Request: fold
Amino acid sequence: MVKGRNVKSNKKITTDDHERSKNFLSNTEVKDLLEASKQSRYPTRNYLLLLMMYRHGLRVSEVINLKLTDVNLKESRLWVERLKNSLSVEHPIVGDELRAIKRYLRSRKDNLPWLFINERNLPLTRQAVNYIVKAAADKTDIKNVHPHTLRHSCGFYLANKGYDLRLIQDYLGHRDPKHTVNYTRVVSSRFEKLWG
Reply:
C-alpha cells in the first residue's frame, strides 16, 4: 500500500478563490481611478497610461514596450504588440483617447522611440507602472487595484456591453478562448431579463 502525502489546506485560499474575488473595476471605479491619476506629478502621462491600459487591455510588459511608431494619429489606430504568445492586433483610438495622446506628445521635448518615458528619458519600468497605478488607487476608495486589474476591467466592460466572445478574444489577443470565457461568467447583463 502506497502512503499518500499529508497535504494541509489553507482555509483562507481555496482552489476557486480567483473566481470568487472581484478582479475588475466598474465603469465608475475606472473613471475615479483615471481622475485620480491626474493628481500626480505627471498627470498627462499617467492619465494616458492608465487610459490606454484599460481601453486596450494592455499588460504592463505591453504598455512599457509601446513605441511612438505603434501610434498612427492620422488613421487613429494603435498597433498592439501582444506578448505571452498572444495575438498582436490593430485597435482603433477613439476621440478622447486621441486627444489625450496628442496632449501628452505635445508635452514631450525629446525624440525618443518609446511612448511612455520617465523623467530621466528612459522607458517606464514595470515597477514604475505598478507605482503609478497604486498611487492613483490610493487616492480613491478602491481597494486591491493592480495594473492587470485594468486588463480584466477591459474584458468585463466588453462582455457587459454584449460583445461576442470571439470579438473579445481577438481584441485581448487570447489564443485560447478559455481565457476569454472568464469575462462572461460574472457579466450582470446576462441576468437582466431573468425576473422581469
